[in-house]
Design brief:
Order of helices and strands: HHHHEEEHEHEHEHHHHHEEEHEHHH
Largest sheet: 8 strands, mixed
Strand content: 5-15%
Shape: globular
Number of helices: 16
Distance between the termini: 54 Å
CATH topology of the largest domain: Rossmann fold
Radius of gyration: 23 Å
Helix content: 40-55%
CATH architecture of the largest domain: 3-Layer(aba) Sandwich
């Protein structure tokens, strides 16, 4: 890989190449070659994602807390209740700040919200013992406390996408945190067995799992968590395999437009999230297999964490749950059951345009999703 730039320079400097490059076709070929080299060798340098300034206000182990100050400091457009983004564990934070002109974080800032975001960091095998309970029982209370200390506000709104929504729900119900004023739950796996064809695959895991439990002494928790560690590239591959045709078309379009510099830059930016997904600690991956895929635990409304139990019925704050109409990873019907599990008198479920990632940063999100969230949240944040 490191030899390719040298090969490129050597070729360009030959007399033959110089003659070719003087022609119109030669100039176009040179542009295509240059764009291809930049996209595949230096894509991270082209990407426009993650450019919104922030302040790191707290760090613990590999995890950090970011603060993005609202664009409006005072007045009727400034909201009192801070907004806290809870990302999924395998997602890098770029998805929330993908393009300068298509950034969820910048949008919330422009709408008068102080935004905090927990960056879960990049797990390695050193974090193999981290499980779902580690994040719910240890990290969430600590970081929520630091947000309250930094903001000077006790009431908070939590925005949880995908597994981040499950983390938000379990934290709020386990600790019966009455100062969580609003919950926004987007594309979160409440009932994984209802999630389309993927849900049917999960259901098929249940039958052999129950047979093993009934007829043997083997339990999946007996396997050391380090054996379940999933690398970031494996999560990237798994994400892309949920829509192999769409991903093929995506790269086919890139090949067809290698002469268009802006298209190449946009492709590198859009890919910066999916191509750089993070690892799952072994304990978390084991919990995903057992709690979400096999036992579908969240759908019961009762989630146990050692000697403590989270009851979703203890959630009484305002809740907005959203599903995407083209989401095949967590379908809208996998999100909808949340409405029957919580006790909130003020609860709303909506289906909007977009797929799993599209709800957060898709091209339609600024018109079809973000205004729905802010219209709901603005009325409940003062």
């Amino acid at each position: 890989m490191t030899q390719l730039p040298k090969v490129k320079d050597t070729f360009v400097n030959t007399k033959t190449a110089q003659s070719i490059l003087k022609t119109r076709a030669g100039k176009q070929a040179a542009q295509v070659f240059s764009n291809a080299a930049d996209r595949f060798l230096r894509g991270h340098q082209l990407a426009l994602s993650g450019k919104t300034p922030f302040e790191v206000v707290y760090e613990r182990e590999i995890i950090s807390l970011r603060f993005y100050k609202a664009d409006v400091e005072t007045g009727e457009n400034k909201h009192r209740v801070p907004l806290v983004i809870i990302p999924p564990l395998a997602a890098n934070t770029l998805v929330f700040d993908l393009f300068p002109d298509r950034s969820l974080i910048r949008y919330f800032q422009s709408q008068g919200f102080d935004v905090y975001m927990i960056d879960w960091g990049t797990p390695s095998r050193k974090q193999a013992k981290y499980n779902f309970g580690t994040y719910i029982k240890i990290f969430m209370p600590d970081f929520i406390s630091k947000i309250r200390e930094h903001s000077g506000q006790q009431q908070l709104s939590l925005y949880g996408w995908s597994l981040g929504g499950a983390i938000s729900l379990c934290y709020t119900s386990l600790f019966k945190d009455k100062n969580i004023k609003n919950l926004m739950i987007l594309a979160s796996p409440i009932n994984t067995h209802q999630s389309g064809y993927i849900g049917k695959l999960y259901q098929k895991l249940n039958t052999p799992a129950q047979w093993v439990r009934t007829n043997t002494n083997f339990r999946i928790r007996q396997i050391p968590s380090r054996y379940f560690h999933i690398h970031g590239w494996q999560n990237t591959l798994g994400f892309k395999l949920t829509d192999p045709v769409g991903n093929f078309k995506n790269y086919w379009q890139l090949l067809k437009n290698l002469n268009d510099r802006q298209f190449v830059i946009n492709h590198a930016t859009s890919s910066s999230f999916v191509d750089n997904m993070l690892a799952y600690p072994g304990g978390v991956m084991r919990d995903i297999i057992l709690r979400f895929w096999i036992d579908n635990e969240l759908s019961t409304g009762i989630v146990k964490f050692g000697d403590q139990t989270a009851h979703l019925k203890d959630i009484e704050c305002s809740v907005l749950a959203i599903g995407g109409d083209t989401d095949i990873i967590v379908t809208a019907e996998a999100v909808r059951p949340l409405m029957d599990l919580i006790s909130s008198p003020d609860k709303t479920f909506k289906i909007v345009s977009g797929g799993h990632m599209g709800l957060v940063s898709g091209s339609q999100a600024p018109q079809a999703v973000w205004p729905v969230i802010t219209a709901w949240l603005s009325q409940r944040s003062n």
